[in-house]
């Protein structure tokens, strides 16, 4: 927070204080380690494209990025291979189904979109590099360009998901069977589990969103993380598919491209203006943070952010 709190600081502090009392939902438990999160944690960060950062609550508390990573890895695939090639691997159709649904677009021999697990596993296979170590390095470098700093891996969450992620294994093996992925499923999954287990705090995540908002350039470091021509592709897919089977109602009410993760974070992008990150572990039946959805609604209303 700046030395003298301004109206945005005061708005966020008030919002945080009011919504701290909001109950409902529970931390995800299907990845056992995530179930240990403190349900009271609640942080908000807003990163503007001019580099200004506003925070409230537990904005410095680190958590695993989980599904929010899917948006950045999708952008990397587009930058690396171009739109047409990526469309051969993954579509852009909303599913209206849960994030881990075992459904594939068999008519086009590809997952429906890069925000559901099937699509994200297909996209993880597209990360640049000649071998697993090179691909891990490319992933780390990508996320570092967005966040403006090196991100650590949460080894405990990574191992917890790797030990229990059999549904994702089922999806990956099905995709191997239909030729949607080519490499060994366990290797592709390892990279996917790693990308989901990177540690960020709300300030990092807001900066990552501000980077997309800023035409792909990190406003704090000046580094380009995403080609300008692919920013609309990433935002469109976030807008349609980022909140899973809540995506339609989210777009109707809040009207901003967003991506949620089962650790309890939501990233919103205000194109051309800012990234907003909200973290609070209790999630609802759709896998979206309860306080996150409530806070996003209030922020969008208060500042008239609905893009339509
Ligand atoms: O694949 C999984 O189940 C997790 N690593 C990520 C899921 C996730 O964050 C979905 N978001 N709501």
TrEMBL record:
It catalyses: L-glutamine + H2O = L-glutamate + NH4(+). One of its GO terms (biological process) is L-glutamine catabolic process. Its EC number is 3.5.1.2. GO terms for molecular function: glutaminase activity. Transmembrane segments: none annotated. Keywords: Acetylation, Hydrolase. It comes from the Bacteria. Substrate binds at residues 67, 117, 161, 168, 192, 244, 262. Belongs to the glutaminase family. Homotetramer. This is Glutaminase. It comes from Alterirhizorhabdus solaris. The chain holds residues 1 to 308 of 612 of the full protein.
């Amino acid at each position: 927070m700046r030395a003298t709190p301004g109206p945005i600081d005061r708005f966020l502090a008030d919002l945080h204080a009011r919504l701290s009392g909001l109950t409902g939902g529970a931390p995800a438990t299907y990845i056992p380690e995530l179930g240990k999160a403190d349900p009271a944690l609640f942080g908000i960060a807003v990163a503007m494209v001019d580099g200004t950062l506003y925070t409230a609550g537990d904005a410095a508390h680190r958590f695993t990025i989980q599904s929010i990573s899917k948006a950045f890895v999708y952008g990397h695939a587009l930058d690396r291979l171009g739109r047409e090639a990526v469309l051969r691997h993954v579509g852009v159709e909303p599913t209206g189904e849960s994030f881990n649904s075992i459904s594939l677009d068999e008519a086009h021999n590809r997952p429906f979109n890069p925000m559901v697990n099937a699509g994200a596993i297909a996209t993880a296979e597209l990360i640049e590099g000649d071998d697993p170590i090179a691909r891990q390095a490319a992933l780390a470098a990508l996320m570092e360009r967005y966040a403006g700093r090196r991100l650590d891996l949460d080894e405990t969450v990574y191992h917890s998901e790797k030990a229990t992620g059999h549904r994702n294994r089922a999806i990956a093996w099905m995709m191997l069977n239909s030729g949607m992925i080519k490499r060994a499923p366990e290797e592709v999954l390892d990279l996917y589990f790693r990308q989901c287990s990177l540690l960020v705090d709300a300030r990092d995540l807001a900066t990552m969103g501000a980077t997309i908002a800023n035409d792909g350039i990190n406003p704090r470091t000046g580094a380009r993380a995403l080609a300008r021509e692919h920013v609309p592709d990433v935002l469109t897919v976030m807008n349609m598919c980022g909140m899973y089977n809540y995506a339609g109602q989210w777009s109707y009410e809040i009207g901003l491209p967003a991506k949620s993760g089962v650790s309890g974070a939501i990233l919103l992008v205000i194109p051309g203006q800012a990234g907003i990150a909200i973290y609070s572990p209790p999630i609802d039946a759709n896998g979206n943070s309860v306080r996150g959805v409530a806070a996003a609604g209030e922020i969008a209303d208060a500042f008239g952010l609905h893009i339509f």
